[in-house]
Design brief:
Length: 799
């Protein structure tokens, strides 16, 4: 009966109007699978509902609604909180909750939370999916929960928000938002991801506000004739889209807040034939590079980037000496390809023979980030002032004899044809006084220089011998057998198997210690791998000595993990009694050093780190091929890369320790202050122990205070146990005390309260009350609402 029931459900999705009821019955389901037909159509076949497979990945899907009759199957609605959905996940129409999405293990990914008893669902020819009562009244509909797109007959009401994607192929939350504000304008602005707090300025406004309340806008309407208007309280409409557009009867229409921040209205011929695809009939704003001009945030492009307009779209490029921090995000941040650090000199000055040079940048500028003005000032004085100031990233010399010095990261970069100024960009240089290159490119160039010098300075006979020797060397190198990687037949890992002598040589006899913990000691090493040479070699000192197969199995599990918030395993050594792991090197040290130093890190960066840790744990718990429980989440096990992205380390190592050797508290794995209460009881351990530890770390990130400190000079009522103190501050509505009057955090009050509430939910003594890490991510990002937390018990707060 199950296949028959499923077939009926699919038939109803495709042709609900062929029967009188036009209903999708409660209890039917749909499964994400590559071997089944994914298309489920509206009555006329224009739109489809279901799971669309992600490009380049046959195991991940997105629950979505799309245009089904055009070649590229453009998605216009999608369920963002569950993205991406693993193969085998099931969507079910449930009477109590509406749309319920579970992963292959039955864990809840999404619930539409329809308020009332659902009797059936309908999917009509406008593209709207609606859940209805038995009297056909609507309980929930996709048109009332837009993502980044609206269609004809759809509206944007007060309180509705369009949120861009992170990139064209990444459906996560982006930086750009569109909404009808309380003043009556349809506005766009950028927000800080993940805190979702708005930046200073709107970069587009419909200008429909009015001192007369009846003249203020209350909603945006996309009419059936494909005109976009702002409807005012008195019923009048102000059309903002072009009035002369192709007929809506012969074309599909959509209006999308695109991933680059431009809101565009598109059309696509229904009889496409040789059609070029979607065409733009209007877009807003005209020049986003200049329209985004707030004092906070990176601008239209990422930090240190330069924005130019092509066809009213932003095109972002990195300046010389910089490259994309994320190669997949072409509108993202640019990072310097050279170390930009202050020396130990006085007042932040660098010695005259520093390793920096200045390059003149034409037609580009960064109007923000000024920290010093020198006037009057000559051009030479301006150059020298920036060159010898370690804080200076760019200096702008203007014709009025003024010098503006700017610090990194640079924001609001844009093409600027102002000929009255010169922009000096500071770059690293090598000893030959040339701008810094990628180390690999620099070695190649040096090798080429040597070859040319020899060829030009030697006799023909010597040249012949040299060329012959070079060819022989290249032949030998080409045919040299590489080190054999250890592979698990079922895995995609490609880990190098090092000999002990190789790692001993790479670490100079295990000379430079980077850190130590319950798993062993970490040393700095140099091995040419990929684009970098520095690695971290972890010497495991308490391993299973009699189970080589088990060691390789667990190492392969770790090697198959791939996530931006995890430290990548490069290789390993298992030789006799020696067990070592080789990791990529994290240049910015541990989260502990970052949080508990003399200077308080910025609030925005702290929130970014917190969400990164949550996403890394969610991946370990729910998304990687083998579930991994970390068992020792703490700031010392969170590392920061060169861009201060949080990377979880030591995951998967708990299984490599013998049970009695893995207990750092009486019979307990973990570290004092971060240990979940269930370790003290004779109960099964689950991923929720990591949730508890994450909650403690989250509160530490918020407050920049250790969970337990005996050396604090406490203020009035302050508790030496951070988890107790956090609850007291929340209950008494004194979050300013928790963050020690951190102005940046307090100015982002909504996000601050949300982060504290999530932390308090995570440290609940009752395991069932703690959220999953995936849900914690969604709550931190503001995708789902955070309920009022219960009071964590006294027991849980003293662990």
């Amino acid at each position: 009966m199950a296949p028959f029931s499923s077939s009926i459900f699919l038939l109803l999705l495709v042709f609900p109007h062929l029967i009188c009821s036009q209903n999708i019955p409660v209890g039917t389901s749909l499964t994400a699978a590559s071997n089944s037909d994914p298309w489920r159509s509206s009555p006329a076949g224009d739109f489809a509902l279901g799971f669309q497979q992600l490009q380049g990945n046959d195991s991940l899907y997105i629950l979505s609604i799309w245009f089904d009759k055009i070649p590229d199957k453009t998605i216009f609605w999608f369920e963002r909180s569950s993205y991406p959905v693993p193969r085998g996940s099931t969507l079910r129409l449930d009477a109590a909750g509406g749309l319920v999405l579970n992963d292959p293990q039955g864990r809840l990914l999404y619930n539409s939370n329809a308020t009332g008893q659902v009797d059936h669902a309908t999917f009509n020819d406008t593209g709207n999916l609606a859940l209805r009562r038995n009297d056909s009244s609507i309980l929930w509909e996709s048109f009332k929960h837009p993502t980044d797109t609206i269609l004809p007959t759809q509206t944007i009401e007060l309180g509705d928000t369009l949120v861009s994607r992170k990139s064209e192929a990444n459906f996560s939350m982006g930086r750009f938002y569109a909404a009808v504000n309380g003043g009556g304008n349809f506005v766009f602005n950028t927000k800080s991801v993940p805190s979702n707090s708005g930046y200073d300025d709107e970069y587009y406004s419909s200008s429909t506000s009015s001192l007369n309340a009846s003249e203020a806008g209350i909603r945006v309407v996309f009419s059936s004739e494909a005109l976009i208007s702002v409807v005012k309280r008195n019923g009048r409409e102000q059309v903002i889209s072009p009035r002369s557009i192709p007929s809506s009867s012969g074309n599909y229409y959509r209006a999308t807040l695109d991933w680059d921040g431009v809101f565009a209205q598109y059309y696509h011929p229904k009889s496409f034939g040789n059609s070029p695809g979607w065409q733009v009939v209007g877009s807003w704003p005209n020049n986003i590079c200049f329209n985004i001009d707030g004092d906070r945030g990176s601008g239209a492009c990422g930090y240190n980037s330069v924005c130019r307009i092509e066809n009213r779209r932003p095109v972002c490029t990195c300046p010389p000496g910089y490259s994309l921090a994320d190669a997949l995000d072409r509108n993202g941040d640019c990072k310097p390809d050279f170390p930009h650090i202050c020396s130990s000199g006085v007042n932040g000055t660098l010695p005259r023979d520093n390793e920096y040079t200045l390059e003149i940048i034409s037609d580009a500028g960064w109007p923000k980030n000024d920290y010093q003005l020198i006037q009057p000032c000559s051009e030479e004085q301006c150059r020298n002032s920036c060159l010898n100031d370690c804080f200076c990233g760019v200096a702008v010399y203007r014709s009025n004899s003024s010098c503006w010095k700017k610090r990194l990261p640079l924001s609001n970069g844009r093409v600027d044809s102002d000929r009255s100024s010169k922009v000096f960009l500071k770059l690293g240089k090598n000893k030959d006084n040339t701008p810094s290159l990628n180390p690999r490119l620099r070695r190649d160039r040096q090798t080429l220089n040597v070859v040319i010098s020899v060829l030009l300075g030697s006799s023909a006979f010597i040249n012949f011998l040299f060329i012959t020797a070079t060819c022989l060397l290249l032949f030998l190198l080409k045919n040299k057998k590489p080190l054999n990687p250890v592979r698990d037949p079922s895995s995609s890992s490609n880990l190098r198997c090092f000999t002990y002598k190789e790692l001993e040589r790479a670490t100079d006899g295990f000379k430079e210690e980077l850190g130590r913990g319950s798993f062993g000691i970490v040393y700095r090493g140099e091995i040419p791998i990929g684009s970098q040479n520095i690695v971290a070699v972890k010497k495991l000192d308490r391993m299973f000595q009699d189970s080589e197969k088990e060691f390789k199995t667990e190492v392969n599990v770790i090697g198959r993990t791939h996530h931006k918030n995890l430290v990548s395993l490069v290789g390993f050594c298992e030789e006799g009694p020696h067990r070592l792991l080789v990791y990529e090197y994290m240049s910015n040290g541990t989260l502990a050093g970052f949080l508990f130093g003399h200077l308080r890190p910025s609030w925005i960066l702290r929130t970014k780190i917190a969400v990164g840790i949550a996403k890394g744990l969610a991946y370990l718990h729910e998304e990687c091929s083998t579930q991994i429980i970390h068992c020792d989440i703490k700031p010392h096990n969170i590392l920061l890369d060169e861009c201060n992205i949080a990377r979880i380390s030591d995951f998967g190592l708990a299984k490599l320790l013998t049970m009695d050797q893995s207990k750092t508290l009486t019979g307990i794995r973990g570290t004092k202050g971060y240990v979940a209460p269930e370790w003290f009881r004779n109960t099964q351990i689950s991923v929720k122990v990591d949730v508890y530890s994450f909650g403690v770390v989250l509160l530490e990130i918020i407050s920049c205070r250790r969970v337990i400190r005996d050396d604090l000079e406490f203020g009035d009522g302050e508790n030496p146990i951070l988890t107790d103190w956090a609850w007291d501050c929340y209950a008494d509505r004194k979050l300013d005390a928790l963050v020690k009057n951190d102005e940046e955090a307090l100015s982002d009050g909504e996000a601050l309260e949300r982060f504290v509430m999530v932390g308090l939910w995570c440290i609940q003594e009752d395991v069932s009350l703690r959220p999953t890490m995936k849900k914690a991510c969604l709550m931190l990002e503001g995708v789902i609402q955070v309920p009022e937390p219960a009071n964590p018990s006294a027991f849980s707060s003293v662990v």
